[in-house]
Amino acid sequence: MDEPLPGARASRPRPGGFAPDRGGGPGADDYAEPDSEPGAPDDGPLQRHGHGVELPVVDGLYETTIIENGATRKIKPDYLGYDYATFTASQGDVEIVIRAKSKINSIGVSPLKLGIVPTKVDDYAYKFTLTGQAYLIVNINGSKLALTRDEPEPYEPVPGEAGTFNVADYLGSTDATNQGNAVAVAAAFQQAVDDASAYGTAAGDGTKGRVYVPPGLYYMSNLMLRSNVAFYLSPGSVIRMTDDYSHYSVDFYKASLNRNGTWWIYTENGSSNIKVYGRGTLDGNGHYFQKDKPASDGGFAATLIMAMGTSDFTLDGPVVRAAPFWGTIVARSDNVNISNVKFFNSLDANENDCLDINESQHVRVWDSIGISLDDTFSTKTWEGLGMSANWYGSPEPLDDVIFNNLFGWTYCATFKLGHGAHQDQTNVTFKNSVTYFAGRAIGIEHVYGDAAFANVTFDNIDIEDAGDEGWFKAVIEESGQGVGPISNVTVKNITIRHGGSASSLKGYSDAIQISGVTFENVRKLGNPEPVSSLAELNITKTGFYDNVAFVPDRSQETVYRIQAENNNGLFGVDWNGNKIIKHAASNDTAAPGVGYQVGNIAHNNYALYRNVDFGADTSNVRIRYDAPRAVRVELYLGNDAGTGMGTMIGGVDLAGNGNQWLNWNSYDIPTTGASGVRDLYVVFKATGSTQTNQLLGSLNWFELTRSF
C-alpha cells in the first residue's frame, strides 16, 4: 500500500463503516435503485443488516438513444449479461441481505471455496455475512450478480489542499454530461493532469500531484497521463466515452475486427510514477460501439487504459467496464502494480479482454475480478505490427509477471499466456485464483511467433466450471508466423470441480515440443487422491510433449484406484432414447466415499477411460458399486484402432439388493489379457429379473491390481 501523498489525509471510516459506490452520477440513466425499475432481473437491493443501507444494483441494461437513417430510437439490450453491485466497508462484518422481486427458488455464492451458504430470511430474501474484502458472483434463480466489497480508499485527496487539482475548477461552466462537450471536458482534465505533473515533478522525491475527479458523469475524449501524477476517481464518479468516433484519435487498426481504435486514457512515452486509483468508474460505452451503432457503421475499438512505455505505474480500485476492445493494456512497461480492480465487460462482445500484460517486466496483479466474453487475465508478446505498430519503443520480452488472488468469468480463457509469442515470455505465475466459468480455465497458447515460453506456474487455482476446450489447454500452433517451444511448466494445487470437455497438451513437432510439465496435487471433484495420469485429467488431445511428471507419482503402485467420474465419456441411452447416465455427488458413506459417482446407469450404458496403465499385467479389477437390481458389469479393452471396444478382459454378475439403494459393496473382477496402456470400457447390462427400463445402480471407483 502506498504511503500517504504529501498534503493528503488518510480517510478513517468508523469500524464497520459502509458506503455504496454509486457509479452513475448525474445523468447516468443506466443506474437505478432496483426496486424502482420494473422488469429488472431478480436481484434487488442489498442491505447492511441493522443500518439498512440500500445498495444500487447495475442491472446490465443500458437504455440508449441512437439516430439511424434519420430516425431516433431507443434500445435497451441485455448487454453485459449479468448484474453488478459494488460497495466499500471498513473492517468488520457486513451482513448482506439479497431481496428479489420474485420468489427465490435457488441461490448460491462463488467462489465456492469460501463456503458461503446464504440463509433464508423469507421467500424473497436470503442473507450472508462478509468478514472482509470479497469479490463474489451470486447466482439467484439462474441470474448472476457480481458483488464486490472493498476497503475504503485509504489516501483520499481533499479538494483545496496544496497539490490537489480539482477538475471541477477547470471545467467552469462546461456541462460534462453533454456528449458534445467531450473534447472540451478532456482539455480541462488534461490541464489538471499537466498542472499536477508539474507540481509533483517540482516537489521531487517521488511526489505525485493529485487530480481529483468529484462525483458525477463526465463524457471525455482522449487523456494523456504524465509523470508524477495521482489520478483519483472519487466514489460516484463516472468517466464515459461518447458515441462519436470523431472525438477520439486513431491510434491503431485491428485487422480481425476491421476497425480503427483509440487509446482512451494513456501514458506519456517515458513517463514514470503514475497512479490511477479510487472507487469511481471508467466506462468504455461498449454497448454503443459493439451493439447499438447503426448496422452500416463499421464500429470503433478502444483500449480504456493504456499503460505504455511507463514505469512505476499503479492502477488500484476503480470499476473498468463495458470495454469495446481489450480494456486495459500494459505494454512495454516495468514495475507495474494493478489491484482491487473490477473489470466488468460484456459477455456478448468480441475481443473485449479485461487485462493484457504485453512485453513488460516486473508486473504484479492482485485482488481483482474480471468478467468478459474474451480472455480475462493474460500475457502476450508481439512483433510491432498491426495493433502494436504505434506502441512506444521496440518489441520487448516479457518477464516476472505474477497474478494473485483473481476471480475470472469468460467464454474464452481466464488465465492465459498467448496467443502472441513473438518475444520470450518467462517467469509467469498465476496463483490463488478462481475460475467461475471459462471456455478453458488455464491456457498456454503459443500461436503467433517463434519465441519461447518458459518457467510458467499455475498454483492453487480453483476451477468451478470449464467449457468445450477443457480446464487446461497447452498448445503450439503454426499460424504463418513461426513456432517456438514451451518448457518448465508447473501446475500444482489445482481443484477441478468441473473440467469441461477434453483438454490439450499438444506441441508442434518432435523439434518444437512442450517439455518439462509437472502436475502436482491436482484433484478432481473433491476426491482425496491427486490424479496421476493425463487421461484421468481428461487431457486427451495430446502429441509432441516430453517429460511429464505427476507429484505424488502413483504410476507404479500395484493397487491403483481410479475414481469413476474421471472418465473420458459416458455413453448410452435409456429405453426412451434419452441419455441419462451422468455424474452425481457421491452417496457412498465408506471412506473415501467423497467426490462424485457415475449414476443413473441404464442397460447397455458404458463409461470410457482412455490410456489406462495396466502395467505388465492386471490380474484383478475391484469395483465399488451400489446394485439395487441384478446387473452385469463387463470390462473391455479398446480396439487397436482406438475407435471402440475390443477384447473383453473380465466381467461380474451382481445379484442386486432387492431394489434397495445405498447398499455399497466392493466386488472383484478377475481379468486376463490386460497389459500396457490401453483404453478401458466399463459396460453395464441388465440381467436376471431386471427389466431393461430399470436403473442399474451407481459406480464410485475401481482399482487395478497390477504387476510391473
Description:
By secondary structure, the chain is mainly β. Helix content is 5%, strand content 47%. The strands form nine sheets. The chain has an 18-stranded parallel β-sheet that branches. Strands 18, 21, 22, 25, 28, 31, 33, 35, 37, 39, 41 and 43 form a twelve-stranded mixed β-sheet that branches. Strands 2-7-13-12-9 form a five-stranded mixed β-sheet, with no helix packed on it. A hairpin with a 2-residue loop joins strand 5 and strand 6. The relative contact order is 0.06.
Chain-wise SSE layout:
Elements: E1 9-10, E2 18-20, E3 46-48, E4 54-55, E5 64-68, E6 71-75, E7 83-89, E8 94-99, E9 107-110, E10 119-122, E11 125-130, E12 134-140, E13 143-150, E14 155-156, E15 164-166, H1 167-171, H2 182-203, E16 209-213, E17 216-219, E18 223-225, E19 229-233, E20 237-240, E21 252-254, E22 259-267, E23 271-278, E24 281-283, H3 286-292, E25 301-308, E26 310-316, E27 319-321, E28 328-331, E29 334-339, E30 342-344, E31 355-358, E32 361-371, E33 377-381, E34 398-409, E35 413-421, E36 425-437, E37 440-446, E38 453-463, E39 472-476, E40 486-496, E41 503-506, E42 514-524, E43 539-543, E44 545-551, E45 559-563, E46 570-571, E47 582-585, E48 596-599, E49 606-613, E50 617-626, E51 631-638, E52 645-654, E53 664-670, E54 677-686, E55 698-707
Parallel strand pairs: 7-13, 15-16, 16-19, 17-20, 18-22, 19-23, 20-24, 22-25, 23-26, 24-27, 25-28, 26-29, 27-30, 28-31, 29-32, 30-32, 31-33, 32-34, 33-35, 34-36, 35-37, 36-38, 37-39, 38-40, 39-41, 40-42, 41-43, 42-44
Antiparallel strand pairs: 1-14, 2-7, 3-4, 3-8, 5-6, 8-11, 9-12, 10-11, 12-13, 21-22, 45-55, 46-49, 47-48, 49-54, 50-53, 50-55, 51-52, 51-54
